[in-house]
Write a structure and sequence with these properties.
Two copies of one chain form a homodimer. With 784 residues, the first copy, chain A, is an alpha+beta fold. Helices cover 31% and strands 25% of the residues of chain A. In chain A, strands 1-2-10-11-12-13-20-17-16-15 form a ten-stranded antiparallel beta sheet. In chain A, strands 9-8-14-19-18 form a five-stranded antiparallel beta sheet, with no helix packed on it. Chains A and B meet through helix 12 of A and helix 12 of B.
């Protein structure tokens, strides 16, 4: 959309200056608001036209039976699917009895703007009805980052050139019709009318709807209250029925006269609480919100975001689009996690129904990379959610004949929801990804309470899984056969390198953490000898290597396979999964998304620099990036070992993934992993930041496009600001006790308030590796 | 069932002397009649009780949409499923207005017998109604092997101790309710009321029903006519409605007095013909059958079977159960194929709805082994059916990005009906299996008309598939990666040895046949150089070998995998597929069914004797025989290289597969491959018969259980009889021109009518290899 003519490039906003109905669904995702508990797509206030209406409550799902043409042991029987709950965003307007609908009449001006510092979505437009009556409308919408259950809308309509009679209808609507996009496996298949009405109330300016999700039994309550400022002779009425509650405010407006309405919304859900308890909870939250009022809610919102940007901001000088993109990304990541608390952070946050609202490894590997460095408390919450899944994950491991815990590949409440096991259950790396997120969090925080409370248990149960999943071969090596790594164009390989090095880290970290917390380890039943067995397996881990080519095969035998016929593949045949059968993709050398290259990043310690150069070059030639999870990984490793200009092109691709809708599915929601990837490309890539057991290190280096990169990170209760220039980097310890870290081979030590400047060594020039024909990273700027 | 107390051991019959309702469905399969075009399960005449009612017309199927939880390119959209067509077997009897139903009243005597020489199912019983009236009933049923559309039933009821009033209701019934066995993936999922009524007629002793299969549009006609012999004062009425036609004959019988009815049935179906055309065809067939009459139909039947046994009989001395089992098997195989003509031979023949009536590689590799050696014309017909699938198979190959033809893993009409591609589409060996069947047929017949007409085209199109599926690796080897071999406890392996050696044969055979028939090859577009490329690929074929263990891995890397924990697997956890996830089975060394061991048989020329010994021993230890296709293959190789006593135990297991319902699914139909396997175990195993490009050879050797084995085979228009004794073998050329073949290292030459006797060399003693604990072949006789 940065490429879309309706969008302007600004450092702190995403602004649309014309309404293009062809991309309405995409803009609804981009303008989505959330606090991690409640999410609202950027649907137009008046409800219609819409691309895809959406209001979500984290972990409110329905269950649908999963069909199988052939029965298979261990296949999950039902799918959890995110539910579009009661829509409280709707404020319809009648102008002289003509409903405001931008498809009809004339839209004389339009502007929508999402402000990353205020956390408010502003809209301003002027509309002329088919019969010629004009109104000017301004609306502001927020989902509160401070009051978890609450959203609010400020809506104002003004007469323009002659008197008009207006009626504002503020509504709650349940069981909206949702369009179905059937053929794309990445989209969700929305059920019809998933909500069973339980109660409806309308009383003065208030109304509420209570429903129960038909199949999962979850109970959902939505309530609204209103204040308004109106000319005299204004009338209000309210009414409710099973699926609709409505407050109507009728008034007449002279030119320049305004009717303004503030709508307060409160949402709640529960799997266990009674109807009255849930109603009371929502009524209480609503009362507090109304009492707070719009202005104070907006102030709270601004302060919460000021805090966030104060510890997390990234400044990019030289590329205004990148500046905008990274703040857009960080804003969405923050609002997806801020109040998620012990709930998951789905692949699309709460911005759309894509992937049925499921959470994958995207959270652990990508999103938590960003959160751990900027809002570590939210990272801990997300990992505590993982911990809450352990009973189900243990049961799943037992069902699969394994020890420890087998996390679901995709889930909302912890039950496996993947119906295609070769790319679901077999992707056991999810366990090591969770463990890696624990290790990263512990490295970055030294939070031993968390280690005792949740971290050790996660490490132990995942280590147990690996120990039972692998086996010792005749030569004493520890093999993990028949599993699927990150790359979804391969499956069921033996000794997938990513999986094995991540399992190795998992096993070692579990042993180390158990040793550090012996009492808790004892409670978890860690037997004497168990940690030794984990360390032994880690040490003996088989890491295949192709001596002939001098590279790591993604999995055993991978480099013996036929290389995909890239020259014979037409541009319109990407993504390949929609045009070729899996059997063909699996048996050839073609990589959907970074797999071995991601191992080079997350387990950089396990590979020599020469390995990294050769492996990166090899996989560049066969990686097609049909996944949004790839470009950012390639950016980070290209920044480490490859040409910086290539790295920057990947960073730009990651930055444009959603803003330019590169995968043509932003309508279903944003790609949180790719948003995190934009931050990773800048901070882990050009900042060269790594956090290992040895501490924090930086290997910064700027691409030509940027003249300066400045980022803030939180590390072990300190706040650090790093400014990377073309020749030197400056480190400032903004807050916290003395900190040591390294800059290239130098050790830097800083006291609170102090700074240090270090030269950036020049890098050897290397030729840029090639990509499959037509799959080079896109060019977004003429100079790159 | 040989073990079942109700069955007696006889050389030429299967006889049941008591009716056990608990195994009713199984006996319906065992007593099924068929001619390859029309099949009738052995349901009781009176329709109820039933285990599973079934009447089938070869290739009459319905289509059901295939559900997928995740969309995948190339997945078949619908499933073909065999339809239970109009039931013409039903003859109900009212005795003093009480319906005869063996669940009620008393069954005073019961006998059912299927005679392998007459091809008639006899039933005789005496029944006392709840109110005490007695009748004696005799029925005979046949599906004509001579008049393809025709079946006939002779039904006779006799008064016993006092006068009774009886009403015989002879019916045609469409859309019977069929019980559903939901949880077993090997069963079918029967649709409700698949037949749309089109017409019904009743006229005198005649009636007909015409239906159209709802989803596939196939039109089915069933008609009946009757003659009867009755006391005076007998009345008949007939009537018809959409799904039922009925002739009722009412009479009174004094003790000893009889009412006998002969019912003639004719069936027809068509995908293209008009309703009148189909009606006329069926009416014509019915007229001929009625004109022929029961006695002449029975004579024809006997003569057809005399012919069959004259060229095919196997005599076993020393084990009466084996004698019965092999004739039972041969009878069912013959009747499944006799009039199939250009239609498939499904895995269950026309004996039940198992596997949805699909045809798999079972036909090509197992069933055609038997047919080629005993009724080569039926083998040619089956291969011409395969040829008729080429347009669909070519389209499927194109869809998969391949050249040549990709045969469906399971099908009725040629479209892929496998919804689980790792064990369906990926099992590309089906193409080589078809080619192997062509090669075997050409070796055994030298039928060059067939080669020109169908054989070469099948060889060329399958060779083209292999050439496009494999690729040349860096070392010049020809690799076939990511495919599934016969063993369904592994999938998507690289260089599966069975697949590669069979593809090698396929490529070489295509090249040789194209060279022999240059004009036809030219018509098929075989380019200069193409045959050379096939030969080159065959020559360079990669055959993995594990030097450390000195065995062939089933596929690359297989022998590095963990060995299944057999000691930790309980007996009730077999078959493993119902108790463990595929991911776990695939990644470990555990073999469902002969894979490498089948390669040792079909491509015996590609392995040294030492290889065979070592490979057989290795795979014995990890093969669990959860498939009915395994024991017979193990029997053949055990007879070649292993202890003969082990071979005989596998032969017995194969012989008992259906008769003793070893897999607990005989209710769904017989296992034709395993029936063929019983013959293979005797002829290929203890007869040591092999047919190669070099000609016919025998390495006979008897297990202790047998004192003599005599079998007849058809070879290149000759009829040969081989008699194997303990010390010597006798070969007789019953019919045909001079024939040369080998007995061990001797060449034997015979003129018509002549015989030759040869000593059987003694075999080295070898220790018996072990099997997984609890998975040793069963013991059926105390002395083995």
């Amino acid at each position: 959309m940065l490429g879309h003519p309706s969008f302007s490039v600004e450092p702190w906003q995403l602004t649309e200056v014309a309404l293009d109905l062809d991309v309405l669904a995409q803009t609804e995702s981009l303008f989505a608001l959330s606090n991690g508990h409640l999410g609202m797509r950027g649907n137009l206030d008046e409800g219609e036209p819409y691309g895809l209406p959406g209001t979500y409550l984290n972990s409110v799902y329905e269950l649908r039976p999963l069909p199988y043409a052939e029965v298979g042991y261990g296949n999950p029987e039902s799918l959890q699917s995110v539910v579009n709950v009661t829509n409280g965003k709707v404020i319809r307007l009648l102008v002289n009895d003509e409903p405001l609908n931008v498809r009809y009449g004339k839209l004389l001006a339009h502007r929508r703007s999402l402000d990353f510092r205020t956390g408010v979505l502003d809209r301003e437009f002027e509309w002329q009805s088919p019969s010629g009556a004009r109104v000017r409308v301004r609306s502001k919408r927020m989902v509160s980052l401070v009051q978890r259950a609450v959203a609010a809308i400020h809506y104002e309509v003004e007469g323009v050139d002659r008197p008009v009679r207006v009626a504002i209808q503020s509504e709650l609507i349940a069981n909206e019709t949702v369009p179905v996009f059937a053929d794309d496996p990445r989209a969700a298949s929305a059920p019809e009318s998933p909500l069973e009405p339980e109660a409806h109330i309308a009383n003065g300016t208030r109304a509420a709807l209570l429903h129960q999700v038909r199949s999962s039994g979850l109970r959902v309550a939505a309530a609204m209250d209103h204040t308004y400022v109106a000319p005299e002779e204004t009338e209000t009425t309210s009414e409710s029925s099973a699926d609709v509650a409505r407050l109507t405010v009728v008034s007449s407006l002279a030119p320049g006269e305004r009717l303004s309405l503030t709508k307060f919304l409160a949402y709640g859900w529960s799997s266990v609480r009674s109807r009255p308890a849930l109603q009371d909870q929502v009524a209480g939250a609503l009362e507090v919100a109304r009492h707070t009022g719009w202005d104070a809610l907006a102030d709270e919102q601004r302060r919460a975001l000021d805090d966030f940007w104060g510890r997390a901001d990234v400044e990019v000088v030289g590329d205004p689009e990148m500046q905008q993109a990274v703040r857009f990304a960080m804003f969405h990541l923050y609002q997806a996690a801020a109040r998620a608390e012990l709930r998951p952070i789905p692949a699309k946050g709460l911005t759309g129904p894509g992937y049925d609202g499921h959470t994958f490894w995207d959270m652990d590997v990508f999103v938590l990379d960003f959160l751990t460095a900027t809002s570590p408390g939210t990272a801990a919450d997300a990992l505590r959610w993982r911990r809450s899944l352990l009973p189900d994950a243990r049961a799943r491991a037992r069902q699969l004949g394994l020890s420890g815990a087998a996390f679901p590949w995709r889930t909302i409440d912890g039950k496996e929801s993947s119906a295609y096991w070769p790319a679901g259950t077999a992707a056991f790396h999810i366990g090591a990804d969770v463990a890696y997120a624990v290790v990263r969090y512990l490295r970055a925080t030294e939070d031993q309470d968390f280690a005792r409370d949740a971290g050790l248990e996660l490490l132990v149960e995942t280590a147990r899984l690996w120990h039972s999943l692998g086996h010792e071969d005749a030569g004493g090596g520890f093999r993990i056969d028949g599993v699927t790594g990150p790359d979804e164009y391969s499956a069921l390989g033996d000794n997938n390198v990513y999986t094995n090095v991540m399992a190795q880290l998992n096993l070692d970290a579990a042993a180390a953490c158990a040793t550090r917390h012996p009492a808790r380890a004892h409670e978890l039943g860690v037997l004497p000898g168990e940690t030794g067995a984990w360390r032994g397996a880690a040490k003996a881990m088989v890491i295949p290597y192709d001596r002939r080519l001098g590279v790591h095969p993604q999995a055993e035998g991978f480099t013996d396979h036929e290389v995909w016929d890239f020259a014979g593949t037409r541009p319109d045949q990407y993504p390949l999964l929609l045009h070729f059968p899996y059997f063909d993709l699996y048996r050839k050398q073609v990589v959907k998304q970074a797999d071995l290259v991601l191992a080079l990043h997350l387990r950089g310690d396990a590979f020599s620099e020469e390995d990294k150069v050769r492996d990166f070059d090899y996989y560049e030639r066969i990686t097609v990036r049909d996944s949004s999870l790839s470009a950012c990984c390639q950016a980070v490793i290209a920044a480490e070992v490859g040409p910086l200009e290539l790295a920057y092109r990947y960073a730009e691709e990651s930055a444009h993934m959603d803003l330019s809708d590169l995968e043509h599915n932003v309508r279903d929601g944003l790609h949180l992993a790719s948003l995190a990837g934009t931050w990773m490309a800048l901070v882990d890539g050009f900042g060269g930041m790594r956090s290992t057991d040895e501490g924090l290190s930086f290997h910064p280096s700027l691409p030509r496009a940027l003249s300066r990169l400045r980022f803030r990170v939180v590390y072990r209760s300190r706040q650090l600001r790093v400014t990377v220039g073309r020749r030197e980097a400056t480190y400032e310890l903004l807050k916290g006790e003395r900190l040591s870290f390294s800059h290239y081979s130098d050790v830097v030590q800083l006291e609170e308030g102090a700074g240090a400047r270090r030269a950036i060594p020049s890098r050897p020039r290397r030729p840029s590796p090639s990509q499959p024909v037509g799959r080079e990273p896109r060019r977004f700027r003429t100079e790159t």
